[in-house]
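Hey, can you fold this one?
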Amino acid sequence: QIQLLESGGGLVEAGGSLGLSCSASIRGGSIGLMGWYRQAPGKQREMVATITSSGDINYADSVKGRSTISRDDAKRTVYLQMKSLKPEDTAVYYCNVWDYGTGRYYWGQGTQVTVSS
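Sure. Predicted structure:
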């Protein structure tokens, strides 16, 4: 069983920057793919960025060039740095982690990011 604790959301002006972090508490097992997703009001949840345990990274086109995902496996933490934020980046951001031990994905509780114009 994994519990994910997210932090770093908040209100930021357009053009600003924001950093999110997500720490996984895990008993045994090991973490594979880690990622960030977001869901804006009235829209489906979408992938923002993912990073594999070997460091392969994938970004959504909408955030490519403005975002950086990274992970610290010793801390079991995944980070998302976003810059040049736009009002359309406003959403609840969710952390997502694959646990090899249980063979399933886990979701964080979500953290609100609001970008004001």
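The chain has a mean pLDDT of 94. Let me know if you want another pass with a different chain boundary.
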